[in-house]
Write a structure and sequence with these properties.
By secondary structure, the chain is an alpha/beta fold. The protein folds into 2 domains: 130 residues, Aspartate Aminotransferase, domain 1; 240 residues, Aspartate Aminotransferase, domain 2 (3-Layer(aba) Sandwich). 40% of the residues lie in helices and 17% in strands. It contains 12 helices and 14 strands. It has an 8-stranded mixed beta sheet, with helices on both faces. It has a 4-stranded antiparallel beta sheet with strand order 10-11-14-13, with helices on one face. Helix 7 links the parallel strand 6 and strand 7. Helix 3 runs parallel beside helix 10 and helix 4 packs across helix 9. It is globular and about 60 Å long.
Length: 387
């Protein structure tokens, strides 16, 4: 009697079962998977955030499918501070990046149409696409002293039913940015094959160093219909306030046609709350301090991880350019699942296996750099001891 959209096996995996058992026993767990900034020991400017949510205009409902003009202007000003000039009319406010994907898949794909998604990457795309009756087709990221897009494999993956190419910039968890040469070819392919580009840029403010070849945002793309996604969750460390956005770019006529249809989709749901939209300008200001703390945390933890691993440890830290995660390549003497179970059950350390992110081979462990420093340092020490 239930929809075929929900076809996944909902039983917990072995790692989830082991974690649940440890917590029921009251055992200490050093969690190196923390992705929730509100639980990462950051100092939030609570007074400013709560005051922003007390705006009296929130008592009046003004349905605006693309988002209140003031909220769209606030997003445009935030981009302008980074050097990107965007017309507020080209911005759509959503409740989250996940909703942004859902709207774009509705916009671009019919049932059984395809979207290309990177592998490895965050394991959400298949769920989001399937909810919209679309299908995901993976294209590989390859590692040779740094990650890059296998453009030849991506081109081979394009079929008659392909409608969009999803980029995560920087990727989660590899932390790799799209490079200028890659973008040039992607825009050519999208224009030739009548495809859209969807660029998830939620981690773009967390780069670990400058790189002239890096593309920090696709907001300036003109040669192909392009959608750039971001939001409060990562930019300001405020996932609980549920506000994201889509920036549209590309050929003017195509962008206008897409915007007209996006507004119809948005008007169908009118999902974004009025209070958070009015609060957005002040939330972005307050979020700058949270972002500064997160930036310092992830950089310091990455440096500490590199120092702990050194040159002669049995593990290697894969090169990472930005984001909140680091990947360890570990000996293939046992499976990733077994490494994770041994660390959890024997050392009280929770890490994620590479197969959670669809790494094509073993063995990899993924660590969150957002973890509080003391927990991170002790957890890494135990990981190395186990290795």
């Amino acid at each position: 009697m239930f929809s075929s959209r929900l076809h996944w096996d909902l039983r917990p995996n072995r790692l989830a079962e082991a974690q649940g058992a440890k917590r029921r026993q009251g055992a200490e767990i050093l969690d190196l998977t923390e992705s929730n900034p509100t639980r990462a020991g950051l100092a939030y400017p609570a007074k400013e955030i709560l005051a922003a949510l007390g705006d009296g205009r929130a008592l009046v409902y003004e349905p605006a499918p693309a988002g209140l003009h003031g909220a769209r202007e606030a997003v445009a000003r935030d981009y302008a501070a980074r050097g990107w000039i965007i017309d507020p009319a080209h911005i759509f406010i959503t409740t989250s990046t996940s909703e942004s994907y859902a709207w774009l898949f509705k916009l671009l794909a019919d049932a059984d149409d395809e979207v290309l998604v990177p592998r490895p990457s965050y394991p959400l795309f298949e769920f989001l696409a399937r909810m919209e009756l679309a299908r995901t087709v993976e294209y590989p990221l390859v590692y040779h002293d740094g990650w890059s897009i296998d453009l030849e494999a991506l081109e081979r993956a394009i079929g008659e039913r392909t409608r969009a190419i999803v980029l995560v910039n920087p990727n989660n968890p590899t932390g790799s940015f799209v490079k200028r040469g890659e973008l040039e070819r992607l825009v050519e392919l999208a224009a030739e094959r009548n495809l859209a580009l969807i660029s998830d840029e939620v981690f773009s403010d967390y780069a670990f160093g400058p790189d002239a070849e890096r593309v920090e945002s696709l907001t300036g793309v003109e040669g192909a219909l392009t959608f750039c996604l971001s939001g409060l969750s990562k930019l300001a460390g405020l996932p609980q306030l549920k506000l994201g956005w889509i920036v549209t770019s590309g050929p003017a006529a195509l962008r206008a046609e897409a915007a007209e249809r996006l507004e119809l989709i948005a008007d169908t749901y009118l999902s974004v709350g009025t209070p958070v939209q009015h609060a957005l300008p002040r939330l972005l200001e307050a979020g700058a301090e949270v972002r500064r703390q997160i930036t310092g945390r992830v950089k310091e933890n990455l440096a500490a991880l590199g120092a702990a691993i050194g040159e002669h440890a049995p593990a290697q830290v894969l090169k990472v350019e930005g984001g909140w995660y680091a990947t360890l390549r570990v000996p293939r003497t046992k499976s990733e699942e077994q490494w994770c179970l041994d660390l959890l059950e024997g050392d009280g350390v929770l890490v994620q296996p590479g197969f959670f992110y669809d790494f094509e081979s073993e063995a990899y462990l993924v660590l969150s750099l957002l973890t509080p420093a003391d927990t991170f340092h002790e957890g890494v020490k135990r990981v190395l001891r186990r290795l």
